[in-house]
């Protein structure tokens, strides 16, 4: 998530590692003026010799805060000033090592202390007490041995955590990709009046993707650098090279990925175009013809838009099978692969640069079920609102609409609808949202800067028409298509999704409060949940770890004890409001608290404490000292070294901590766009957000089958919480 790299506000009250050199001063350690290398060497020696490497973990985490700060302070001093110690020939223009550092293995004591602190606000006292005892046992044995296993693994691998994380996060997950895993992104709608407009706009997108692919193949992709927290530190760009030509593959035991070999790039390239559930292979680059021009791509797409509606037979809805649970789809995929023609079809799809899905309009039944007083949809197309558009990108609208017009395993599916709605559905395992967003917004900017050519109506007849992909459908596959149709429609009907724009203020006001927008919004999400339910739950927010080689994300756990104490006081003793409410304004007004039992100064102080804690968690994550990746490593090491999972990883508290009833992420866009996804658990919420200067766009999701969740109701609670925070912090 880009936001975690951009925030430069330090609200923790602790000195950053880069500031410690100034704080200590050269004379303290006997260094000559202007010799930071000598100072750092002496500091490192002092810390290594004077501070113990292993300290017994305190029994109560709250009393161990100084201990934890000491560990972190030591660790940061020992690791981060490495750029000062590097030789000039080993560093880049900003003084950082040319080679990215490896993901660290934090001290075992630090991970255990952070884990206990993270679960305290979301488990019962009895559960916490039991887990505290288990942690002590783990620290004695086998924790140190497992920790050393990870340290040794770090020395021999580029990224010791990557495969653990990839399998746990994606490859071992068995639930269907649409709604549960693949995000959908809506970009600003276009104005189409003819089928030529659809073909021209789509051709320009494909042309932009081909241009981007050439840049990747030539190695000219500009490297990115951190905007804060060790500013200008280089970021890993590996995931940018996995966007095009990649695909997830369903497996009987575990999924896998098809990734193109960057050392042996093919001389020809193709895309697959889906239109009215029919698939076409369009060669966009070949030895004989080179790369197709925009006009040539336009001609190929126009042929498809004319051909697909006129086919005498309805094509089989093979794309529906990719929307099934992963192990079910894996068996169906194996059945398809028994036929040589189907085998080639799947190979064409998996090795294509992207899928282009030319869609039909969704009915207004997918429009938002909002609340009284909510702001109206900003983007509209005919009778469709933004929530409707998001449904199209996430799942396609069902078997009667566009869900079969997909291949949900494909990393990038560009979706263009005949009414001007457009966006993307992307499979998440290959990259994070930032890579996808930046690519599409770069292409869109170029399209908007250069006007479309005048259409002559003459197509490029020198090109052979695109190859239509034909499937061999045996009776067992036909039966599975009927079952898949029923299952996917049921899951789509269960999705409660709402695009909500909060327009009272945005980043400008939040920054005036001397707080990071991401920290502020995360606290608003916690307050909104507490207002509804009277407690906090395990919360996931993705944090970029791209400062490290092959780094992806770790988890910012926003449900802190500090956030809980602040939320309690903000709600001033209100009871939980779990029962679903009426939208009547008078009932809303009757429930509002009109008195204050706490002073504003006290509320502000609790907010600052909660914000400082949230900032500290965020910084620790982006610097490689989160808890979820190390815990995952210890869990897998337990299985590999000890033969089974330690009790720490079968404990009830661990299960509660891993069940994210609130799954969140910031998806920052430079355009008026947004990205959303479904909850990751049946009783949970999904909530992405995109802060703009004067508004915040939320995509809130839940399931209708959960009797105590509601997307519109949570959005209303968010509105109330953000209003309360404005009143607390203004002036």
TrEMBL record:
It holds the Pfam family Carn_acyltransf. GO terms for cellular component: cytoplasm; neuron projection; synapse. One of its GO terms (biological process) is acetylcholine biosynthetic process. The active site is at residue 428. Residues 103-719 form the Choline/carnitine acyltransferase domain. One of its GO terms (molecular function) is choline O-acetyltransferase activity. It comes from the Eukaryota. Its EC number is 2.3.1.6. It is an enzyme of class 2 (transferase). Keywords: Acyltransferase, Neurotransmitter biosynthesis, Transferase. Signal peptide: none annotated. The keyword Acyltransferase applies. Belongs to the carnitine/choline acetyltransferase family. This is Choline O-acetyltransferase. It comes from Clunio marinus.
């Amino acid at each position: 998530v880009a936001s975690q790299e951009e925030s430069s506000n330090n609200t923790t009250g602790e000195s950053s590692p880069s500031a410690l050199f100034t704080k200590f001063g050269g004379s303290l350690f006997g260094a000559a003026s202007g010799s930071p290398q000598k100072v750092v060497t002496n500091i490192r020696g002092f810390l290594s010799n004077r501070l113990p490497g292993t300290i017994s973990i305190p029994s109560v985490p709250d009393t161990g805060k100084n201990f934890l700060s000491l560990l972190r302070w030591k660790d940061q001093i020992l690791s981060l000033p490495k750029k000062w110690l590097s030789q000039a020939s080993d560093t880049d223009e900003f003084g950082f090592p040319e080679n990215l550092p490896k993901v660290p293995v934090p001290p075992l004591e630090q991970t255990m202390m952070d884990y206990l602190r993270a679960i305290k606000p979301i488990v019962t006292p009895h559960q916490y007490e039991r887990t505290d005892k288990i942690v002590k046992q783990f620290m004695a044995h086998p924790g140190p041995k497992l920790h050393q296993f990870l340290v040794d693994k770090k020395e021999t691998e580029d990224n010791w955590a990557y495969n653990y994380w990839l399998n746990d996060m994606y490859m071992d997950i068995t639930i269907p990709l649409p709604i549960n895993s693949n995000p959908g992104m809506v970009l600003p709608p276009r104005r189409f009046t003819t089928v030529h407009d659809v073909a021209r706009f789509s051709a320009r997108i494909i042309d932009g993707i081909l241009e981007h692919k050439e840049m990747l193949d030539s190695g000219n992709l500009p490297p990115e650098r951190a905007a804060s927290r060790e500013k200008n530190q280089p970021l890993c760009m590996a995931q940018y090279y996995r966007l095009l030509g990649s695909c997830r593959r369903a497996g009987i035991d575990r999924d896998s990925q098809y990734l193109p070999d960057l050392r042996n790039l093919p001389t020809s390239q193709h895309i697959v175009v889906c239109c009215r559930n029919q698939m076409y292979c369009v060669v966009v680059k070949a030895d004989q013809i080179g790369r197709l021009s925009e006009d040539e791509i336009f001609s190929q797409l126009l042929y498809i838009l004319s051909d697909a509606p006129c086919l005498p037979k309805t094509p089989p809805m093979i794309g529906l099978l990719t929307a099934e649970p992963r192990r079910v789809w894996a068996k169906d995929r194996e059945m398809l692969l028994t036929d040589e023609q189907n085998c080639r079809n799947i190979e064409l799809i998996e090795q294509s640069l992207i899928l282009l899905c030319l869609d039909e309009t969704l009915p207004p039944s997918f429009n938002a079920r909002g609340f009284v007083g909510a702001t109206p949809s900003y983007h509209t197309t005919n009778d469709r609102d933004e929530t409707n558009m998001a449904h199209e990108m996430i799942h396609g609208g069902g078997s009667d609409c566009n869900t079969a017009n997909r291949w949900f395993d494909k990393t990038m599916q560009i979706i263009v609808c005949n009414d001007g709605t457009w966006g993307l559905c992307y499979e998440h395992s290959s990259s994070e949202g930032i890579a996808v967003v930046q690519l599409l917004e770069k292409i869109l900017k170029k399209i908007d800067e250069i006007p479309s050519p005048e259409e002559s109506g003459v197509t490029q007849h020198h090109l052979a028409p695109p190859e239509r992909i034909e499937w061999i459908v045996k009776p067992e596959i036909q039966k599975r298509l009927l079952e898949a149709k029923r299952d996917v429609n049921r899951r789509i009907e269960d999705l409660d999704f709402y695009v909500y724009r909060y327009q009272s203020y945005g980043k400008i006001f939040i920054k005036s409060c001397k707080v990071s927008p991401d920290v502020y919004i995360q606290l608003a999400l916690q307050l909104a949940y507490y207002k509804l339910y009277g407690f906090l739950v395990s919360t996931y927010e993705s944090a970029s770890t791209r400062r490290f080689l092959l780094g992806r994300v770790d988890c910012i756990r926003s449900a802190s004890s500090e956030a809980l104490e602040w939320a309690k006081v903000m709600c001033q003793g209100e009871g939980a409001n779990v029962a679903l409410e009426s939208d009547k304004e008078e009932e809303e007004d009757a429930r509002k608290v009109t008195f204050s039992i706490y002073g504003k100064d006290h509320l502000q102080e609790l907010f600052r404490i909660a914000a400082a804690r949230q900032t500290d968690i965020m910084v620790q994550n982006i610097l490689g000292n989160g808890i979820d990746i190390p815990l995952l490593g210890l869990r897998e090491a337990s299985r590999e070294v000890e033969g089974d999972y330690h009790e720490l990883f079968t404990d009830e508290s661990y299960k509660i901590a891993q069940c994210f009833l609130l799954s969140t992420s910031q998806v920052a866009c430079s355009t008026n766009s947004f990205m959303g996804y479904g909850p990751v658990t049946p009783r949970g919420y999904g909530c992405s957000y995109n802060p703009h200067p004067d508004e915040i766009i939320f995509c809130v999701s839940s399931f209708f089958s959960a009797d105590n969740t509601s997307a519109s109701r949570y959005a209303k609670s968010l509105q109330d919480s953000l209003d309360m925070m404005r009143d607390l912090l203004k002036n």
